[in-house]
Specification:
This protein is 38% helix and 10% strand. The protein has 9 helices and 5 strands; from the N terminus they run αβαβαβαβαβαααα. It has a 5-stranded parallel β-sheet with strand order 2-3-4-1-5, sandwiched between helices. It is elongated.
């Protein structure tokens, strides 16, 4: 029976553009994002599954643009001061899940989208699904969402997952056996968050057990991956 380690992610996330792994899974979305500030009507939606890197890209853009960040799905977030946002760059994170938070009503999102393209204002929204299927109780908001330009990120491919793993181990000053990377990439779910979690678990296990970072340790700590999802 394998030893199972379960640890929370403790490292603070970094959103530097130089840390983003570019591949066929995200290059088209990256090109659309790099079209800023010339997005049609000053608006763009960045869409992709959980763990695909959309938050990384969106936060890197926000740093570049000096954007105000609205965490739409965070229940602790306060409602935005709409008059103060006029003419500014705005990032609306998790716009498709805004019903989970208290910060962004349909009316507020409608007004934010209307600010785009006015006095230099621009808006980037992120979500897991296309704006066409986002809930909208305000008819005018529905039409704005339907007209949004969309940049789509696919789930991470092997190139992205290996880059995430290499960066995670390097940040921990670890040097795994080279064959650990293809072993993990071929078995982990297609998620950057899962890859970072795996690096955390292996780091802890190697330290506690005083073992080398290799396939044997990964098999013991994470299981053989056959028939089970990594958690």
């Amino acid at each position: 029976m394998s030893t199972q380690f379960r640890l929370p992610l403790t490292a603070a996330p970094t959103w530097g553009r130089e840390d983003f792994a570019v591949s066929a899974a995200n290059s088209d979305a990256l090109a659309r994002l790099d079209g800023w500030p010339d997005w049609p009507e000053g608006r763009l939606a960045l869409i992709g599954p959980a763990g695909s890197g959309k938050t990384h890209l969106a936060r890197a853009w926000a740093a570049q643009a000096g954007a105000v960040v609205v965490d739409a799905a965070d229940p602790a977030s306060a409602a935005p001061d709409l008059p103060a946002l006029r003419g500014k760059a705005i990032l609306v994170e998790d716009a498709d899940r805004r019903a989970e938070g208290q910060a962004l009503s349909d009316e507020a999102l409608f007004h934010i989208l209307n600010m785009a393209g006015v006095d230099g204002g621009t808006v980037l929204l992120t979500g897991r699904t296309a704006p066409l299927v986002w809930a909208a109780g305000v008819p005018d908001l529905r039409s704005r969402l339907n007209a949004l330009g969309v940049a789509m990120i696919d789930e991470p491919d092997d190139v992205v997952l290996e880059a995430v793993l290499r960066r995670a181990f390097a940040q921990r000053l670890l040097k795994p056996d080279p064959d650990l990377y293809p072993y993990l990439v071929s078995r982990l779910p297609r998620s950057a968050a899962e890859a970072i979690a795996a690096a955390d678990l292996l780091d802890e296990a190697a330290d506690q057990l005083r073992r080398e970072l290799n396939k044997a340790l990964a098999r013991e700590v994470l299981g053989d991956f056959e028939g089970d999802e990594f958690e």
